[in-house]
Fold this protein.
Amino acid sequence: MRKIILILAVITTIFLSCSGDDHTTTTSTTTTELQDGDIIFQTSKSAQSKAIQLATGSKYSHVGIIYLKNNKTFVYEAVQPVKLTPLKDWIKRGEGSHYVVKRLKDAKTILTPEVRSKMGSFGESFKGKPYDIYFEWSDDRIYCSELVWKIYHEAAGVDIGELEKLSSFNLDDPAVKQKLKERYGDNIPMDEQVISPASMFNSDLLVTVVER
């Protein structure tokens, strides 16, 4: 009897050590794991995705914000146009349906109900605006990481990722050069201020909560 109890104890220990107590990363997603304001990343299948990956040195080329509405989960994103997309549809659009969700380390303190409401209201001002293929730092048109960065900056007072100039990226790859030529011709705005999905993904202010 003691031998059986010992075996069961060993099995239980192995199970607990495998499951662990670190819940910052998981392989499945339910709406209870996500919160308003979480930031979600994926590798887009868009025509410009490969150029973005090469220029920034990251496989992640698209980003949005998680919104929970009426017990349903959406991603607020800058595509054409800026809109709310059901999470399931958003995931399917990504390469291999892979995605990563990150959250502010101090989300409980910073993202109060009032701040979350302000983020929603400010974000609403961009709804329906066209996607910015030129990556200009204006509010007339807007691209994915710019949308997320500005919402956090204006509504939460938090800057996620470092703003960079276009010239700071790797622009030497032929695929990147071709995309720049298509967009700008011979007048590439090297001094344009930009925020990349890669810079946001690597921010020390964020922690991974879901990866699948």
Observations:
- The chain has one domain: 23-211.
- The two ends are 42 Å apart (CA to CA).
